């Protein structure tokens, strides 16, 4: 009897020690040790009979995998996976289909994208008449005196002429209008909106922005970068309910495209309030998390000028708030965009010889905020599109990191679109992440040649292959709603680089292979935001986020990159299916 009680007591102690040790299992190695110690490894779901690309170099391909408690339990061949199945284990037979890890969109403005889905959509409008007609139809459904909001227009696809308030004044006499350009760095206000904002010929251009004027000095209605702050405060803020609905719309849209994690830079653009991302964090994301309405994992970046608030939050809550919400870091802007002629270059624009673009922030102020953010352990990300802006930020990153404190910083440059000779190598040498958006090149191929000249544009634009060759890390994204969330399209763009109306690739030497493109949307994207312990590859211990594609031929996929998303799984549960009536798994 004494032996029995001694044995029982020892067993209880082992169990208690095991339970107490669970919070310490904060990395993959420890998590796997815990799995091995488990008295029985039983899968909730086994995925079989497919071609599974894992984004894990230790086992790039498998035909089956087992999932337990929302995480990958084992990846391998069917004979090793079937051992983990029991009576209640469900099976997903892929019938030869390809599976890839859940895509990570490395740059979105998630709630603005969801809001835009319910506003006037001007993406693809290719004539002035269609532009005006879209506004005329939309304003008919808006109460007199209310703001009409929309965006997505791209003047390059209707010949390049910039829109003016006079285009739409006659159809919007009783409603102020604000229509953002597709890149978010320029917007059009009608005359009523200009009047409400107090904008006239007497206004001076603000630092880091410009009011576009006609030959008589009168504002045309176009505002660039920080000049947008003259109008934006007059637009009623979206309500909490509207922003919550926007999150749900955005999440459903992302899942439809196979995106299971997004890096969200929020409602933060030149001229907007730095409070907006914080409002969305408290009013929308925390609400969704607590109420069970989160559908995709979110890594949040906040305006750099609020860095100390993020430090305080992280010190209290840590970086991982739940399986859904992760605190990423801080973001700032160095310049504008190519389409708005506000990207900052070493040489002037070929179509505007007195214009080098805009440096939208004081460099000393940016350095001080970057230094403080980095010293506090925050990840820093800065928007830079023009070659001079990229060089300025790389110089600044080198200076900040010169304190000889060896640390895994993972500095990021968002966009890195146009690079001067010699700049490519610096990304690898300084371990700076190039967070790039392949689909932007589809819009820029024609305009870049006009704005920069053919030789200059082809020498330094969207240098994906060169960056990888020089050991830089690429993270792919969309910049939604600037471009649509569509990883499969972006992967094809990065491999083919054929803009609309072109028969050949633009800068074919920069085309990627399928493996590099997939990794840029999966494991490299996860590493770029410090989430590689949790997502990015189909590896034991990570969340079971994966996408089932419509093709069953890897060779065809690698060559033509034509496939659709058939189903998206988050944590091993089906979050989207092209066949909504299918409720299995």
Automatic annotation (TrEMBL):
Every Amidohydrolase domain range: 91-572
InterPro entries linked: Amidohydro_3 (IPR013108), Metal-dep_hydrolase_composite (IPR011059), Metal_Hydrolase (IPR032466), YtcJ-like (IPR033932)
GO molecular function: hydrolase activity, acting on carbon-nitrogen (but not peptide) bonds
Protein name from the UniProt record: Uncharacterized protein LOC104212461 isoform X2
Upper classification of the organism: Eukaryota, Viridiplantae, Streptophyta, Embryophyta, Tracheophyta
């Amino acid at each position: 009897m004494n032996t029995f009680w001694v044995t029982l007591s020892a067993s209880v102690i082992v169990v208690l020690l095991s339970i107490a040790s669970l919070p310490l299992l904060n990395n993959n190695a420890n998590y796997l040790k815990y799995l091995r110690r488990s008295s029985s490894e039983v899968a909730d779901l086994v995925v079989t009979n497919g071609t599974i690309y894992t984004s894990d170099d230790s086992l790039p391909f498998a035909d089956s995998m087992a999932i337990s408690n929302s995480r990958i339990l084992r990846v391998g061949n069917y004979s090793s996976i079937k051992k983990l199945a029991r009576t209640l284990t469900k099976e997903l037979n892929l019938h030869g289909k390809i599976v890839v890890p859940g895509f990570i969109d490395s740059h979105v403005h998630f709630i603005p994208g969801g809001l835009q889905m319910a506003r006037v959509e001007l993406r693809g409008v290719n004539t002035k008449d269609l532009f005006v007609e879209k506004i005329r139809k939309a304003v008919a459904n808006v109460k007199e005196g209310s703001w009409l909001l929309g965006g997505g227009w791209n003047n390059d696809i209707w010949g390049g002429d910039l829109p003016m308030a006079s285009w739409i004044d006659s159809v919007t006499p009783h409603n102020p209008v604000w229509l953002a350009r597709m890149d978010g760095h320029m917007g059009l206000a009608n005359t009523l909106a200009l009047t409400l904002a107090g904008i006239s010929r007497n206004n001076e251009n603000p630092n880091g922005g410009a009011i576009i004027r006609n030959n008589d000095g009168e504002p045309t209605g176009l505002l660039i970068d920080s000049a947008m702050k003259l109008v934006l405060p007059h637009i009623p803020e979206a309500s909490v309910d509207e922003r919550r609905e926007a999150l749900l719309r955005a999440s459903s849209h992302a899942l439809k495209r196979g995106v299971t994690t997004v890096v969200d830079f929020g409602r933060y653009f030149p001229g907007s309030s730095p409070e907006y991302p914080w409002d969305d964090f408290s009013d929308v994301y925390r609400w969704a998390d607590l109420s069970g309405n989160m559908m995709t994992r979110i890594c949040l970046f906040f305006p750099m000028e609020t860095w100390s608030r993020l430090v305080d939050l992280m010190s209290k809550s840590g970086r991982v708030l739940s399986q859904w919400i992760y605190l990423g870091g801080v973001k700032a802007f160095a310049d504008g965009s190519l389409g708005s002629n506000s990207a900052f270059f070493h040489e002037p624009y070929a179509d505007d010889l007195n214009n080098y673009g805009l440096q939208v922030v004081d460099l000393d102020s940016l350095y001080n905020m970057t230094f403080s953010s980095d010293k506090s352990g925050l990840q820093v990300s800065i928007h830079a599109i023009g070659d001079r802006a990229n060089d300025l930020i790389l110089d600044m990153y080198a200076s900040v990191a010169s304190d000889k404190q060896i640390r895994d910083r993972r500095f990021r440059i968002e966009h890195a679109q146009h690079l001067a000779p010699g700049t490519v190598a610096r990304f690898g040498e300084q371990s700076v992440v190039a967070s790039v958006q392949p689909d932007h090149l589809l819009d820029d191929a024609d305009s870049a040649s006009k704005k920069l000249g053919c030789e200059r544009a082809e020498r330094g634009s969207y240098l994906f292959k060169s960056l990888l060759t020089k050991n830089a890390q690429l993270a792919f994204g969309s910049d939604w709603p600037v471009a649509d969330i569509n990883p499969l399209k972006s992967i094809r763009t990065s491999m083919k680089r054929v803009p609309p109306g072109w028969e050949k690739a633009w800068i074919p030497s920069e085309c990627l292979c399928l493996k590099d493109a997939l990794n840029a949307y999966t494991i490299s994207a996860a590493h770029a935001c410090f989430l590689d312990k949790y997502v990015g590859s189909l590896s034991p211990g990570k969340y079971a986020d994966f996408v089932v594609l419509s093709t069953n031929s890897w060779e065809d996929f690698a060559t033509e990159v034509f496939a659709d998303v058939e189903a998206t799984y988050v944590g091993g549960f089906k979050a989207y299916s092209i066949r909504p009536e299918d409720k299995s798994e």
